[in-house]
Every structure is written in structure tokens, then in C-alpha cells.
Design a protein that fits this description.
Shape: elongated
CATH class: Mainly Beta
Largest sheet: 6 strands, antiparallel
CATH topology: Jelly Rolls
Strand content: 35-45%
Length: 202
């Protein structure tokens, strides 16, 4: 199939835009770089952490007080979570980003006496305003007002799992790359037009 000059130009332009368009990629964060309370277990590969309630310490925390180093062009902070509130327990997962006085995200509830309650999902937050800076991050598992048995002893059966913490970035082409592609595109259009002119003269 032969392509006319306009069709070929459109095809080349489409490819150029695909190549020049920002490419999203993810930077996985090693949770072993966080400070963990005694009842927090982080996997050896740093991809997941399990927070278990503590009868004395609340909240149980996984924290990066020094702040995550946010590369330039970062767009979102993303992680997966699963909070299992055991039967008769009342517990909450709270996530803090930058402002440690107010959670950016919170989930949890008081479970019934005969069944546990599970909260799970993927959370993401726009961090473009923190690009190139340090960002404090805190994961908390904390009990509620009714998380006690009849003898006022804390119930410690709930579990929080955090996994796949990552920063997504947009790779933006450098000006030199733009220039090379533009020159190549103009050159291809010139060659196509020259060939069409030669054919029309035959």
C-alpha cells in the first residue's frame, strides 16, 4: 500500500508525538528505610510491612521522619493497604503526608462481635508540589475508643499491611531531543515532497 504525502506526514507525526510524550514510570520505595515500632515487620525486600497492634503502644507506626526524597517530575505517591479489624475490635489506619497534625487518608471502624471487617485498596496522592524536596510520611495503626474488653484491657487483634509504596514520575524529553525530532520530521517531509514532485514531472 502506497501512502500519499499527507498520509505519510500524519503517520510520522503520530510516531513523533508518541516518542516525545512524557513516559510514566514508578520508583519503588524500600520500607526498610522507615523507622518501625517493635510490632512492625518489614519484608526483606522492603516491598511490604505488617503493623500489629500493641497493648501498650498506640498508635503503632511506620514512619519516615527525615522525609522521602521526591525526585523532580514526581507526580503521585501510591501504595496498597489492607486493614483487618478483628471481631469486637475498633481500629483505624491513618496516613500522614507532610502535615503530621492531620491525616491525608484514614479508614477503619468498629467490627461486630462475630465477624472481622476488612478495608483494602490502593491510595494515591498528588505530590507535584513536593517535587525535588523531602516529604515526611507516616503510616499509623491506632485503636478506637471501644477497643477494649469487659475488663478494660486493650484488644490487640487487628492488623494493617502496607505494600508497593511508590513514586510515579513523568519522564520529560530534553530540549535537544525535541530539536532532533523536529529536524528529522521536517527532513522526512522534504524528502516525501521531493519524490512526489519528481513523479509528477515524469
Amino acid at each position: 500500500m502506497k501512502l500519499s504525502s499527507p498520509h505519510l506526514a500524519k503517520w510520522i507525526l503520530t510516531i513523533m508525538l508518541m516518542l516525545l510524550g512524557g513516559r510514566a514510570w514508578a520508583l519503588m520505595i524500600n520500607l526498610n528505610t522507615f523507622t518501625a515500632d517493635p510490632t512492625v515487620t518489614v519484608s526483606s525486600d522492603g516491598l511490604s510491612a505488617t503493623l500489629i497492634e500493641d497493648a501498650v503502644l498506640s498508635p503503632v507506626s511506620l514512619i519516615h521522619m527525615g522525609g522521602l526524597s521526591v525526585p523532580l517530575n514526581s507526580q503521585y505517591l501510591v501504595f496498597d493497604y489492607t486493614l483487618t479489624v478483628a471481631a469486637s475490635n475498633e481500629d483505624y489506619f491513618q496516613f500522614y503526608l507532610d502535615d503530621l497534625s492531620l491525616p491525608s487518608f484514614a479508614v477503619g471502624a468498629a467490627a461486630s462481635s462475630n465477624a472481622s471487617q476488612i478495608f483494602s485498596g490502593t491510595y494515591s496522592e498528588d505530590i507535584t508540589s513536593f517535587s525535588g524536596s523531602l516529604l515526611p510520611v507516616v503510616f499509623d495503626l491506632m485503636y478506637g475508643w471501644n477497643d477494649f474488653d469487659s475488663n478494660k484491657i486493650p484488644l490487640t487483634d487487628s492488623i494493617l499491611v502496607i505494600s508497593n509504596l511508590e513514586l510515579t514520575e513523568i519522564s520529560v524529553p530534553e530540549p535537544n531531543t525535541w530539536l532532533l525530532f523536529m529536524l528529522g520530521f521536517i527532513g522526512l517531509i522534504f524528502v516525501v515532497n521531493m519524490k512526489n514532485d519528481n513523479r509528477s514531472q515524469v
